[in-house]
Amino acid sequence: MARRNLTIKKSSESFLVPLLFGLIVASFFVVFARAPERVVAASSDRMVSVEGVSHEATSVQILRLTNVEQSIPLMRGPVYEFVLQDGGVLNPSVIQYRIPKDLRSAPSHLLTLIAFDARSLSWKPISTTIDEKNEVAQTNVPIEQTLMVGLGTKF
Length: 155
Known about the structure:
alpha+beta; 12 strands; Chondroitinase Ac, Chain A, domain 3; five-stranded antiparallel β-sheet; elongated
């Protein structure tokens, strides 16, 4: 009789050890896993803003680059550089660029945002939506480390 009780006790203990280990591991991931964070930033002149989601503690700094647009063909507005701090990635992200007063009368189908492509080392138009009512050009692009964007024309 004593032998039977000993066997039952042993099998219940062997079941509890993996269960407790699993609970501890799951708790560790719940406590230390980073939840997605909403990141919002705007340039100091309020011409450009970005909103996105990051899974790391990331902040965005938007810098206006002076006199760069003059050296880039098809660029018609100031160029801004988005710099992500702490090595994060914003994906997805929405960039909004207020259309300068001198370009508001331009046909909206000719306006586009132009981004610097680090692979080809050239400026390329990116998919852009123009909101004529709010006078904003908008794009959805992921941002990794840095991104330079300006407003230009397609032709």
